[in-house]
Specification:
two-stranded antiparallel ribbon, mainly alpha
Length: about 600
Amino acid sequence: MSLRDTRERINLLIYNTKKQTLRALKVVSIVVSLIAIGCLFYYHGFKLSDDTSQTLQWMVEASFGFYVLHYLVKVFYDFSPREYVRRNWLEGAVVATLVIEGISYNAFDTLILESIFNQLGLESVSALSVVFLQFYLFIVVIAELGDNTNLISNIKLHPSTIFILSFLIIIVAGTLLLMMPEMSHTVNGMPFLDALFTSVSATCVTGLIVEDTGTFFTYKGLVVILFLMKLGGLNIVSFAYLAAFLGRVGFGVKQDEIIEDFVTKDAFYNAKGMLVRVFTLSILIEVVGALLIYLLITPDMPVKTEGDKIFFSVFHSISAFNNAGFSTLTDGMYNAFLREAYLMHLVVAVLILLGAFGFTVLFDLFSPGKLRDRLRHPWKRPQMSTLLAVHTHMILVVIGAVLFFFAELNQSMGDKNFVEASITAVFQSVSARSAGLNTADIHTLTAASIVMLIFMMFVGGNTFSTAGGIKTSTFALIIINTYSIIRGKKRIEVFRRTIPQDDMLKAFTVLITFGGGMLICVYALCLTEGHILAMEGRGVLDLVFEEVSAFSTCGLSTGITGMLSAPGKVILIVSMFIGRLGTLSIIFAFTRKIISTNYSYPEEHIMVG
């Protein structure tokens, strides 16, 4: 009897028990995962006795044993085991790692991953790698449960609501983690409001801090912030929910416009594929950026061990590309050890620029397939939205750099030569778009530079990027519309294309809601932060700068964030949250769409201007 015939006989024997067995194992997997994750949080978040630590470790090891068993059962019950292993190669690799680690530990009392990390000087990562594996396996279980149940398909939520909920879940989890005693160098852990502020700032990739990141948090706390930046910058969780929404719930003609407002057309038609592409590209850019930063570390910098160098490089690469603005050093890039590291400034500036460009722009410009197509057909060009975004972004970068250069040449940059001053001006112009990293002391800048930075933060980066602000496309459409009206043109045209009236209305809606939200919050800050206004050398411009930075998720500050009162922190928390989600997402989530627009009232002229 051939192997194929034997497998067919086995399939017939196990057919009646397959569905019930796999469903039961999935339910048990969720329970096991939740217990194991809870154990890991407790293990890494609190100081424990030896007995308690041993018990928690045993429970986590038992959960890994269950995952191995669960995977083997799934392979056994699949009608084509070899094909199942091929389709789920990543899960198989993780399970194989767990098996090898288990054999190594029981036979030789050594963990292979731990030995590798220790050789690299990353002793703390060896313990945290267990957390990463546990979370990955938990996500696999949840995904499988969704594939075989009606749980997700019964959730009839607006895409904007899913987007908002995903951010709230990340923020709450981040807050709870940062409050744990082992995450900071304080005795009782970070206070709730400060932990919430930090979690929102990291998740919304802003970079405003109430405590010095480098000295206040432990290595574990920095790892939490790093992952909050990564999840918040790409919003992987909400993107995955959206993929599930499109794939399982389905959509009709009425939902097309709503979802296309929320994501790009590529994501609209291929959400799962887009998620993979976004994740892959972001990892590639961050790895290259981290390698370049690592190579530029000099002996005088306060990162001595190999592990510190690797973590410093990875942390700042992720922070820069995701426009997050966090740094492991006091004063960030303006730290005395980095202040004159101009090559590193250029690397970080490029990472910031790529993050602010947005994934659709990067895919459209640098996708191998599209590059080959444009080489074969020179008359083909990138999409109009890409051209508009790149042109607007680069024009604003140049304008910002020139204005900063001349405003600060004989002021804060008086001790720099032409090249050094130029690099500093370019860095601040690029970073002001949404990154929050600075190579100059913001508090000592001239009023002209502060006003310029406020404008740059307000505009922000490109759509579907890690940047905030009203976005360059919105700003460009408003400028083009204004120019067209002055010229007396009946249609809004750019690059030989006509812009739909609906897009113009949305652009003005974003401008008004963004600007209006900032004005309301500035007014509220003036009421709550009277003690800052009373300080010598401080004024209302500091509050305006802080609010615009928060609402635009930029993260630059004149140094007043740590001085804010509790109400002031709450105002900035709300600003960062709304600014990251976007005003249109908030509006779509909480307003009802008009049932019918198939009517028109008589027109009447209104005097304007």
